[in-house]
């Protein structure tokens, strides 16, 4: 099974609303690895690694986010595979 990594940048009301916590929980639920990190511009960077299908499912989830957040847009870019351990909040 081929593994891939994608970096997502999520814009909207995504800081101070538990977005990283919920993203981490969702990533672990999907069996993915990576991290969620707040950026200085108010967005959240999410790196997701795993099977193509699970990464795609996470991409769909990120478009909506948790109920506490308001996602305006999500930008994704492929990146080279990195073997992260677990899913972390940075």
TrEMBL record:
Ranges for domain Acylphosphatase-like: 5-90
Single GO MF annotation: acylphosphatase activity
Main EC class the enzyme belongs to: hydrolase
Keywords from the named record: Hydrolase
Recorded catalytic activity of this chain's protein: an acyl phosphate + H2O = a carboxylate + phosphate + H(+)
Catalytic residue list: 20, 38
Catalytic activity, EC: 3.6.1.7
Recorded family membership: Belongs to the acylphosphatase family.
Name of protein: Acylphosphatase
Keyword Hydrolase: yes
């Amino acid at each position: 099974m081929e593994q891939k990594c994608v970096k997502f940048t999520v814009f909207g009301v995504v800081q101070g609303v538990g977005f990283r916590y919920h993203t981490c929980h969702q990533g672990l639920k999907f069996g993915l690895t990576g991290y969620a990190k707040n950026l200085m511009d108010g967005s959240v960077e999410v790196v997701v690694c795993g099977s193509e299908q699970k990464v795609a499912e996470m991409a769909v989830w990120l478009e909506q986010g948790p109920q506490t957040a308001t996602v305006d847009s999500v930008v994704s870019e492929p990146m080279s595979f990195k073997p992260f351990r677990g899913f972390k909040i940075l």
